[in-house]
Batch of 2 targets.
Target 1
Amino acid sequence: MNSFKNIYCVGRNYIPHAKELKNPVPSSPFFFSKPTHALVEANGQEITLPGDRGTIHFEVELVIRIDKPYKKGLEVDELVGGMAVGIDFTLRDIQNELKKKGYPWLIAKGFPNSAVLSNFIEFPGIEECKKVDFALLKNGQQVQIGNIKDMVFDLQTIIDFSAEHFGLGKGDIIFTGTPEGVGPVSDGDHLSLLLGEQVLGDCIIKLS
Ligand code: ZN
């Protein structure tokens, strides 16, 4: 976990998700980031989240890991070495308040354990990646399913944009946006992170 450097996250990268939260679809990539303290691996254990700050939503996302120093012209398949399925946990009530005030989202998006990661597997290349869906099960039922081919901004665009605006290097990871179906978690919920039929990680929610 400690080897990751920056955690970039893409907002509103799937049209049905932007619409379900009544947000406009962006015309250029929309980013926020999380502190490294937000990271936690889903190994079947309990993950503690704040129980006293309003509704917490799950957002399942494909996560990519950059394995090489970025250079302009390098392609996704050359730069990305690993991928995982992750959850971008969001304090939704707080985020709504922050949005109204025009404040940054850090408090709603950056709390400890808000960036959940499954095991990383070797990145199979964009074309192979498009052949498998990523999904989230809550208590055994599928609540979200997505595929990178439905992104508003594709992986190359996201990577080039990050590099240009924030810098991008080995060890950085990118949460690439959530499809529709985000919703609340409750104490005791069992969440499973799937790639195709394969469970790459799971955890139990502990609110405290
Ligand atoms: Zn997200």
Note: The first strand starts at residue 7 and ends at 11.
Target 2
Amino acid sequence: MKNADYLTGITTSGTPHLGNYVGAIRPAVETSKNKELESYYFLADYHSLIKNHDPNLRKQSALEIAAAWIALGLDYENCVFYRQSDIPEIPELTWILTSLTSKGLMNRAHAYKALTAENEGQEYKDPDKGITMGLFSYPILMAADILMFNARKVPVGKDQVQHLEMTRDIAAKFNHVYKKLFILPEVVVDDTSAVLSGLDGRKMSKSYHNFIPLFDTQKRLRKLIMKIKTNSLGPDEPKDPDTCTLFSIYKAFASKSETFALTERYKKGIAWGTMKQELFEYIDEILKNPRKEYEELVKNPSDIDAILKKGAIKAREFSVPFLEKIRETIGIQSIA
Ligand code: TRP
């Protein structure tokens, strides 16, 4: 088993939406098919322990997110697709790395700083109120996810860039203190992949509640698209595609020539009702088959489980011997 060329973690909470699809899922699905690359995708369910304390919800979310990725075309035979909690080497490496990581590095994490700042604004003056050690050391678990497979490239959203810098710091520290075992991973922030606008025109995001779920019913999909905010220009008036949410969503899916053709129709004037109906039909056509497959998959959780278990076996072909090497390097005896 080769180390990872690409590796990324998928948070197992919430419902995947159109914005997640064009920003993260679609590019990952493309990479997963590449025969020249060893790409690793995993469900970060240990990370979910920090926020969610409901065992059934945790299991269910992981299955649904896995079903979504499979339904959208992830080539799970070609890539390595697994659940983080099926790889016991990861928490072991987490402890090894925790013992090397300076507390000061974690103090500087944006997510932690934002929470302590919020607490300091309150009367009770306990900056750490409600903050668990899990949240505080989240970046170390993430470093272990990446370093366990000596990943070269890690595609993430902008909010995760600092975590990658920390991973590099931690890897460099290990290499310096013990022996050079770790590759310093590179962050890949894909600025070319589309950022989708949501129902209200702001960036489509869970936190704004303006998203279009990928696997709602056809009826709900239509209803949401009909709700997208437009301006009050009349049906025959020329319209500006560049400031139009409907157009930006269409563009994220359409080919260059289709986009060009629509631009021409905007210039001439297109009624909002027509545009909404066409956008609905266009998106529905893309989601129709994945939606069916998704529904089948979630009905058969044992099939998803089998796929993930197979992925874990592949992943452990790398992590088991690599952890052995790490143990030997730091002077912990072999378990075998
Ligand atoms: N923290 C990432 C997020 O919120 C998810 C994640 C966990 C991850 N472990 C990772 C991403 C390792 C890349 C590599 O999106």
Note: Strands lie at 6-10, 39-43, 80-83, 153-155, 186-188.
